[in-house]
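Tokens for procollagen-proline 3-dioxygenase. Go.
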Amino acid sequence: MEGALRACKEVRSSRVRCRLRCQDQHPFDATFSDLRFPDVVLRRAACMNACIEERIGTQSMHKVGEDVVQDFHRRIPYNYLQLAYRKLEQPDQAAAAAHTYFQANPEHVEMGQNLEQYKDQPGVEEEHFVDREARPHQRSFAAAVGLYDEGDHRGAIALFEEALVQYYEADSECRALCQWPQRFDGHDHLRYRYSLYEIISDHFTQVLHCEHECVRDLATRPGRLSPMENYLPQHYDYLQFAYFHEDRLEEALQCSLTYLLFHQGEESMTDNVHYYREMLGHDGQPREEAAWYLRRHKQELELLLIGSETMGVEFTEGNYWSSTGGREDSNRIPSGTDGWMEYVPISEKKNVVVAAQQQLKEGGPLVYEDVQLVQNSAALNGTQRVLLDRVISEEECSDLRRLAHAVTMAGDGYRGRMSPHTPNEKFEGATVLKTLQVHSPLKMDFPFLIETCRFQHSEPKSMIIISCDNLHGAFLDYWFDCTCVSVQFGYEGRVPMGSARLFYDVSERARRVIESYFLLNSTLHFSYTHLVCRTAITGQQDHRNDLSHPIHADNCLLDPEANECWKEPPAYTYRDFSALLYLNGDFEGGEFIFTEMDAKTVTVRWEHFLLHGTAADALLLQVTYRFAEIDGPLRPLQASVKPLCGRMVGFSSGGENPHGVKAVTSGQRCAVALWFTLDPLFRELERLQADEVIQALDTQSVWGGGGLNINPKDEL
């Protein structure tokens, strides 16, 4: 595996070096003619073939399938390596491999747990946790930001300058790799029936698009799809302010002017330029490498627009220099209007004022009389958060717990994994549809019909319907290729049928409350509904230091080191709101916690604390706190909310609300977990099927009797 990694790097390096060498050896000069162009193209092709074979042998030896390429891109080899090194009792090497893999796969819970174990092993030091695939320009930039935040501006300047050199080198390498064979969806150049120039134009446009996108590639962290905002311009922003601190105003002016190449006319940076000019008594010039870089970028854009129009392909220019990303320090203030971070001119740095926060859109009616508002976003020290009590009654909690004990299956909802988040707890779950399928109020003397259909890109689904006629009409929008099969359907069970219907009704009650409280202007749809219980495994609770559910966000990939949440797959990016409706509180641990983006600092309002570290007696919700002495007054480090029957936590699903669950150390914790979406295209398919089951059963008077043979005990 180590040899495969070395070979992969050597192939990449050889392709880059040969491309750049042959480009220098066979340039396009001023003497251009119809024959000169193909002459240079053919000589470059011959040069690159010879160069590659000289360095690494015949190219066919290094051709691999797309699946292998993707595995290396996702750093899969390092997963194998950490296991192998662990069995060889080389924990330092295993730690490095695990860390490298985890950087590109932060959602991999097991690897995160492995890393925590490696930290406690003898012989493993902090320096062993290195990213073996770290990109030099990103590593230098991150280190420079660290020094900047520590106030070491001289050290930061050196690293920022180094990061810029590495960035432009990486850009050349990225563009060189675009010259190699590409996979263009929907194109087979060997079967083209177009003219020479049309073929060249089409292929060149695709290659040019690849080169143009190097801006995005170089700003994207491993394992991510979304780039860091404003990545390259940030270098010059940090540099101008660092140079200012070092009283090197010539360099500060140059970097400020360079930044304005990317964001022409930005008011605050323009103010900085005026300040530097006034102090120096003369003007300056932006850096030439950045000016040339942007000239090329604009020229590429013009060619891409021409090429896409000629070939009839749609092209949209990306927002490469987004101004939403910038320095995060005390010299920046939130605008309070659109979430962007605005620069403060140097002349105003001594009078920084934090603007008022944007008004939260919440506080709508709770729909049901018994529901009580306990804490809003302000009380929970966050945004788009709410805590409610008495959403359901004690009796309803008991019914739903009995339902859970009867129908939940280990690993349901977690791809069959009984312990998906921690080896110390067992997870069991069931969906609304499953409870309705399993629970029928009838000792049936007649056959039910089961429709087995294949939904687009899905496994076969089965559901109860009354007749095949139901398929035509309501089901027609969702199903195709369906076959009706008549089967005898009947069970003898343990739980009243009303509990299955209660699960359906309670989830709808929760949806209506969340939709109303957060004053949503459009319908909130179910994205996924899950009745889930987690149980502490006896004998595995001593000295636990893990979480029942690690800190995460519901619609983005939390990246604590970058203080970002990347809204991209495999995250459920379409989820907009989440809710947890608790069914009991008779267990130990299992508290729900909100955290900051760093996945460590638990959010809590200062009003809930006394200066001497004693929790206020008036606190509700059985909230517990932990304090630490940090340079003077006590400050809160941790807050947690104990689940109780009928209590519900609701919140928006994005990176503004990272959350997790503390370890359940004794007993069983049950809840109804709900995720919602505002996009009807991502409605929960099983919920739509459950709606049809309820409608069909109601139509046939299944709930009330209607002459059918009802079990006298109303049990299965």
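The CA atoms of residues 366 and 513 lie 5 Å apart.
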